Amino acid sequence: MTETKIPKATAKRLPIYYRYLNILHDSDKNRVSSTELSEAVKVDSATIRRDFSYFGALGKRGYGYDVDSLLKFFKKILNQDKLTNAALIGVGNLGNALLNFNFHQNSNVRISAAFDVRPDLANTVQSGVPIYPMSELRKQLEDQQIKIVILTVPENVAQNVTDDAIAGGVRGILNFTPLRVSVPANVRVQNVDLTNELQTLIYFLDHYNEEE
Amino acid sequence: MTETKIPKATAKRLPIYYRYLNILHDSDKNRVSSTELSEAVKVDSATIRRDFSYFGALGKRGYGYDVDSLLKFFKKILNQDKLTNAALIGVGNLGNALLNFNFHQNSNVRISAAFDVRPDLANTVQSGVPIYPMSELRKQLEDQQIKIVILTVPENVAQNVTDDAIAGGVRGILNFTPLRVSVPANVRVQNVDLTNELQTLIYFLDHYNEEE
DNA sequence: GCTTATTTGTGAAATAATTTTCAATAAAAA
DNA sequence: TTTTTATTGAAAATTATTTCACAAATAAGC
Ligand SMILES: NC(=O)c1ccc[n+]([C@@H]2O[C@H](COP(=O)([O-])OP(=O)(O)OC[C@H]3O[C@@H](n4cnc5c(N)ncnc54)[C@H](O)[C@@H]3O)[C@@H](O)[C@H]2O)c1
Ligand SMILES: NC(=O)c1ccc[n+]([C@@H]2O[C@H](COP(=O)([O-])OP(=O)(O)OC[C@H]3O[C@@H](n4cnc5c(N)ncnc54)[C@H](O)[C@@H]3O)[C@@H](O)[C@H]2O)c1
Fold first, then answer.
1. Looking at the predicted structure, is the pLDDT value of residue B96 above 50?
2. Is pLDDT at A120 greater than 80 in this prediction?
3. Structural domain that includes position B68
4. Interval B70-81 mean pLDDT
5. Mean pLDDT score, A155-176
6. Which of A101, A166, A201, B80 is packed most tightly, with the most Cβ within 10 A?
7. Is pLDDT at B107 greater than 90 in this prediction?
């Protein structure tokens, strides 16, 4: 399953490259250099070449990279050639915005099921996604083979809900709550902490002025 | 302004520590060890001690850290002892969710103005925040001395809107669009790319199984 | 076909971040 | 008071990531 373990920092940049390659493809460009890519994605060109090189010699010297073959390669690597279903738990303020946003437009991920405790939401459809009561969480996760959950519940229930999701077989969590949830080693959590991002931004403005 | 330049990785963790210190404070705990903190925030205890040590000797050997004085210290460092105003541009799907979410509850940041091109939104109030037309962007940013912008507009206008905001004196941008915007060196961009996060999560599940 | 201009891929160096280790110190227990 | 226990702070080691710099390869121009 793992071809060769690439650095995590590289892995996080792959979707950025993938996205821009799609844009190039759509505008019928068929070659691109690391320098050109660098400007678009704001990553140093040497870093890009290094990143690509983990996967072998994908480019041609004096020419650059072939957009289509690179795109095909990354599509494979990122598993974007087949659809991945995700579940969303907590159809509130933020949850609704995410449901409404069609991830599928930009990637091969779609939210195929959502869950909430509110009885009035259960068994309705929001933005084309069926909402189930929490009592059905486990069953639906298992039936639909869902391995990824987007967590947008209130902080105080985040750990419980996480535990339930993991019991249902979930392996990855995109966590929007400020709580750092505890999970077993084989489950991956990606935290999106917006208050944090704002505070970090303020810190950098106050303390890292006038240079990069 | 800069006391001593601390590592960026450390800076990004400061709000996490700050948040948990507040929780400890609210539950009347008055001491905490790096080990205890480590479990709550999921950061190695040695990393925590190292992080803290950039600011001097804040703890006591054999005892730990005094919650209140640590909290006071971080409050100062993170500028959380005074209110920071931010603007939000693009009151759509995601923008509305963020407006509705009261950052001020968790931090001393609040959205004090929002902007949108839609004429029907101009001069209304959403979730207690006044919405202005884009023609007033520059004036309001300058009048209210807003240095931080939350960007939730469609991708294709993101660069233009960014340029306008910077012309209005903005120094930090929390960018929710997938576009990597171009900014001068003295402006900081923090990207929150949700499609990306999901794709990265999938990559890690597929390629980094069974270990950390 | 020869020359020049491009651009990759990668060793080596530089920089950044984490982790190990442990002496020093303070608190708590005896 | 003395001993034991807990815990920090920092030096050193390790690991991770980025960047430099350039030979090698190719394309494009002549
Ligand atoms: N809204 C934002 O812009 C924003 C920004 C940053 C962080 N967050 C975080 O995202 C999370 C959600 O925020 P929100 O503003 O959407 O809150 P919200 O209260 O609007 O939505 C939470 C939803 O979760 C549901 N819920 C409650 N308990 C549940 C349970 N046990 N199981 C399943 N569903 C349950 C509620 O019924 C509600 O629909 C919070 O943790 C918040 O801190 C939100
Ligand atoms: N909604 C999500 O959950 C989500 C998730 C990931 C990324 N995003 C990104 O966030 C951005 C906004 O997404 P959304 O779903 O809220 O879109 P949206 O279309 O619902 O909202 C965009 C808003 O921006 C306004 N706008 C358009 N042009 C403008 C301009 N020139 N100046 C000011 N305002 C302008 C529109 O009137 C609209 O209200 C997009 O770039 C999207 O890719 C959204």
1. yes
2. yes
3. 8-77
4. 94
5. 97
6. A201
7. no
Amino acid at B179: L
Q: How do beta strands A109-116 and A125-126 pair? A: unpaired
A162 vs A145: CA distance, rounded Å: 16
Helices (H), chain B: 8-26, 34-41, 45-53, 67-77, 93-100, 103-106, 137-143, 155-167, 194-207
Give the gap in angstroms from C-alpha B61 to the nearest C-alpha of chain A: 27
Q: Using an 8 Å CB-CB cutoff, list chain A residues near B106.
A: 178, 195
| CATH number of residue A147's parent domain | 3.40.50.720
- The answer to whether the Cβ–Cβ distance between A148 and B11 falls below 8 Å is no
Backbone region of residue A59 per phi and psi (left: phi > 0; alpha: psi in -120 to 50; beta: other values):
beta
Average pLDDT, chain A: 93
Question: Average pLDDT for residues B16-26, to the nearest whole number?
Answer: 96
- Nearest residue (by CA) to ligand 1, atom 6, is A194
Token readout for B117 is 């091109």
Cα–Cα distance between B37 and B27 in angstroms, integer?
A: 14
- Does one domain contain both A134 and A172? yes
**How far is CA A147 from each of CA A84, A90, A103, A115, B76, rounded to the nearest angstrom?**
9, 17, 16, 15, 41
